[in-house]
Design brief:
This is 2-oxoglutarate receptor 1. This protein is mostly helical. The chain is 80% helix and 2% strand. It has a single domain, classed as Rhodopsin 7-helix transmembrane proteins (Rhopdopsin 7-helix transmembrane proteins, Up-down Bundle), CATH 1.20.1070. It has a two-stranded antiparallel ribbon. The protein starts with 7 loop residues before the first helix and ends with a helix. About 2% of the residues have low confidence.
């Protein structure tokens, strides 16, 4: 036994994952339910981008609803008492949301690229048909990508406890490793290249001509850059560390393996944090959503009142500062 080898990964499973998953669950549940209700009740008629946003929120909602099971599992010292089906469903559900979100964000980037680069086609791209077609394709592709995982994840009995291991901790043979690499290449790297190219093209195009600082152009830049940020901050670390975890598992020293596993554990909730960025994406995507959100909670009235009070105080202060004649 290596005396320098610690149980840091087990400690993180016990304390770090339940806390982070609980935070993501609370914020994600409230945020996505609110977003979906606003889209459904206040933002009609829908465009293709709206349909993509609603489906993205649905994917995030399905993900956060699985988190209480994982919180219970890790607080219960990684003892799974909920059966084989729920184990497979929860573990595969994380990846279904992950790759569904990646594809939805990629579609949003492509749609915005077409609107910016081909303005004459903007009206056609914004038709409902393209939104429905894109979302149908995303759900089907995500299901195809994740379905093989259902046969790889299963319950394991270790130390007199029934464990429900994550995908990277389940991979053991070359066939599974090839599936992991294929999933990374087609499910993440290819969409990352597409999003990066769209981002570069949109930023360059919006930097040309007059009115480069107009609100609509600034909003388009923010949305595009935010999508790329989600890929780099949330999805990239997870895929790098998952690949590293799979490759060194059972071959590296205890210290290296535990360290890499701990880093991989950190990246898992980080990938789930895309739900937070997606909530910001709904707000940045257009003024209609912001106005609908403020009106839903009656904040617009109080904001207007606060602005009026502030303006009155500024005018009064300016008048007091005028010297007497």
């Amino acid at each position: 036994m290596d005396p320098t080898c610690t149980d840091v990964d087990r400690l993180m499973n016990r304390y770090y994952l339940p806390v982070t998953y609980s935070i993501i669950f609370i914020v994600g549940l409230l945020g996505n339910l609110t977003s979906i209700s606003i889209y459904v009740t206040k933002l009609r008629p829908w465009k293709s981008s709206t349909i993509l946003m609603v489906n993205l929120a649905l994917a995030d909602l399905l993900y956060v609803l699985s988190l209480p099971f994982l919180v219970y599992y890790y607080t219960n010292e990684e003892s799974w008492l909920l059966g084989d089906f729920l184990c497979r469903f929860v573990r595969a559900g994380f990846h279904f949301n992950l790759y569904g979100s990646i594809l939805f964000l990629t579609c949003l980037a492509v749609f915005r690229y077409v609107v910016v680069m081909k303005p004459l086609r903007a009206a056609q791209v914004q038709q409902k048909f393209w939104g429905v077609a894109a979302c149908s394709a995303v759900w089907i592709v995500a299901a195809v990508e994740v379905t093989p995982m259902l046969t790889m994840i299963s319950l394991e009995v270790r130390d007199n406890k029934t464990s429900c291991s994550d995908f990277a901790s389940t991979i053991s043979d070359d066939g599974m490793q090839w599936y992991g690499w294929l999933l990374t290449a087609l499910g993440f790297l290819l969409p990352l290249v597409v999003v990066f190219m769209c981002c570069v093209g949109i930023v360059r195009q919006l930097g040309k001509g007059p009115n480069i600082s107009s609100p609509s152009r600034m909003r388009a830049r923010r949305v595009t850059v935010l999508i790329l940020v989600v890929f780099v901050l949330c999805f990239l670390p997870y895929h790098i560390l998952r690949a590293l975890r799979v490759e060194i598992r059972g071959t590296a020293t205890c210290t290296v393996e535990r360290t890499v596993h701990a880093a991989y554990i950190v990246s898992r909730p980080l990938a789930g944090l895309n739900t937070f960025f997606n909530l910001a994406l709904y707000t940045f995507s257009g003024d209609k959503f912001r106005r609908a959100f403020l009106s839903a909670f009656h904040w617009e009235h109080w904001l207007q009142k606060a602005k009026s009070v502030l303006q009155v105080s500024v005018i009064s202060k300016a008048a007091d500062d005028v010297p007497a004649a």
